[in-house]
């Protein structure tokens, strides 16, 4: 088994992982979407990682989708809506028993990816690290955080897990990864869409708690119905704690909308509404929020799926 880290998507999080793995001496190869992006990357000669006032350049090799050679380990670092189509294109290169690490926020994209590659192991990740692109091939490490990785289908920790510690990537193998992803999704549903609708920082929701609380009630019911009682525990309190602790921040969904980018709503609030529908659970507040958000995105000319 090759120990090379192939990284699909040299955006914010993919570049952050690539630079840290490369500087610790691991073999890393970026996979870019086509020859044009590859040529642009090669002109630049590598990725630049900015941390506070320090910047480092890493000449990490890159290739396009159709490069030859098998892939044994793939970090999937594109947006949730791009993950399954991108992995499907790479499927012919995935070795039997290949391992994929899925960094996507929300839920639903992981199962879409797994359907494309039944012969591979899919490891789900939940990250609270923060990074953003200042320019193409240049990423700023904006918020220290943590990463939980786990495989709902198999509890064994992968042999490469120590690579993360050696690269200074804070991470833990989590047997309860579905609960962690559900909890993060619930926090997102209670906060992010309202920041878009009220055009405010997270702290602005302190003036709209009468809207937040009923959403939390429905999310708690939904989490119980989906077999995720730990993810439901003290949700109201944690939502309020997050609103206070991040009062001056703009949510990721708010930032996507502000920059005219497609949001990941389909895998966040959309997933919550679809899960409720599958369980026959009425969630009128969440449904209403979803409709308002979709209308708002469409009025801005943004995709709402
Ligand atoms: P991003 O900056 O937009 O990067 C996505 C990258 O994927 C882009 O470089 C894009 O390529 C690439 N891509 C898309 N389709 C591709 C394809 N078919 N082939 C090759 N590359 C492809 O996104 P991000 O912020 O890193 O987010 C990635 C995931 O991590 C999201 O689900 C997000 O919610 C989650 N997350 C992000 C953060 C964060 O701080 N950024 C934190 C926690 C979780 P181009 O450059 O060519 O467009």
Describe this structure in words.
The protein has 305 residues and is α/β, with parallel strands linked by helices. It folds into two domains: 171 residues, NAD(P)-binding Rossmann-like Domain (Rossmann fold); 121 residues, N-(1-d-carboxylethyl)-l-norvaline Dehydrogenase, domain 2 (Orthogonal Bundle), CATH 1.10.1040.10. The strands form two sheets. An eight-stranded mixed sheet has the order 5-2-1-6-7-8-11-12, with helices on both faces. α6 crosses α9. The longest helix has 21 residues. It is globular and about 55 Å long. The site of NADP nicotinamide-adenine-dinucleotide phosphate has 26 residues, from α1, α3 and β9.
- The figure for the number of domains is 2
Helix run count: 12
Categorize the overall geometry: globular
- What is the level 1 CATH name of the largest domain? Alpha Beta
- Let me know the CATH homologous superfamily of the largest domain: NAD(P)-binding Rossmann-like Domain
Write out the strand line-up for the largest beta sheet, numbering strands in chain order: 5-2-1-6-7-8-11-12
User: What CATH architecture of the largest domain would you give?
Assistant: 3-Layer(aba) Sandwich
Mean pLDDT: 97
Computed CA radius of gyration, to the nearest angstrom: 19 Å
- What compounds sit in this structure? NADP nicotinamide-adenine-dinucleotide phosphate
For the secondary structure, the number of strands is 12
Q: Quote the CATH topology of the largest domain.
A: Rossmann fold
- Estimated share of beta-strand residues: 15-25%
What are the low-pLDDT stretches, counting only 5+ consecutive residues below 50? none
What structural class results from the helix and strand content?
alpha/beta
Distance between the termini: 38 Å
Listing every helix as H and every strand as E from the N terminus to the C terminus, the arrangement reads EHEHEEEEHEHEEEEHEHHHHHHH
Largest sheet: 8 strands, mixed
Organism: Pseudomonas soli
Pathway: Cofactor biosynthesis; (R)-pantothenate biosynthesis; (R)-pantoate from 3-methyl-2-oxobutanoate: step 2/2
Domain Ketopantoate reductase N-terminal: 5-152
Function: Catalyzes the NADPH-dependent reduction of ketopantoate into pantoic acid.
């Amino acid at each position: 088994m090759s120990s090379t880290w192939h990284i699909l998507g040299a955006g914010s999080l993919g570049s952050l992982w690539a630079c840290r793995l490369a500087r610790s001496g691991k073999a890393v190869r970026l996979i870019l979407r086509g020859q044009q992006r590859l040529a642009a990357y090669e002109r630049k000669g590598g990725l630049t990682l900015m941390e506070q006032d320090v910047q480092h350049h890493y000449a990490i090799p890159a290739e396009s989708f159709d490069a030859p050679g098998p892939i044994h380990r793939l970090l999937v670092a594109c947006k949730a809506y791009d993950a399954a189509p991108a992995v499907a294109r790479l499927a012919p290169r995935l070795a039997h028993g290949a391992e994929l690490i899925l960094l996507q926020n929300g839920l639903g994209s992981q199962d879409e990816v797994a359907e494309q590659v039944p012969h591979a192991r899919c490891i789900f990740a939940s990250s609270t690290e923060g990074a953003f692109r200042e320019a193409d091939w240049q990423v700023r490490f904006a918020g220290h955080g943590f990463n939980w990785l786990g495989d709902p289908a198999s509890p064994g920790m992968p042999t490469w897990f120590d690579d993360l510690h050696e690269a200074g990537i804070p991470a833990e193998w989590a047997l309860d990864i579905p609960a962690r992803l559900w909890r993060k999704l619930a926090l997102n549903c209670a906060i992010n869409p309202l920041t878009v609708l009220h055009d405010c920082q997270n702290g602005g929701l302190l003036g709209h708690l009468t809207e937040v609380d009923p959403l939390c009630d429905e999310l708690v019911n939904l989490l119980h119905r989906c077999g995720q009682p730990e993810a439901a525990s003290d949700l109201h309190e944690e939502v309020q704690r997050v609103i206070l602790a991040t009062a001056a921040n703009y949510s990721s969904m708010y930032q996507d909308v502000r920059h005219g980018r497609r949001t990941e709503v389909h895998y966040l609030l959309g997933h919550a509404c679809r899960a409720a529908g599958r369980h026959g659970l009425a969630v009128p507040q969440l449904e209403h929020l979803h409709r308002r958000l979709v209308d708002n995105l469409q009025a801005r000319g943004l995709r709402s799926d």
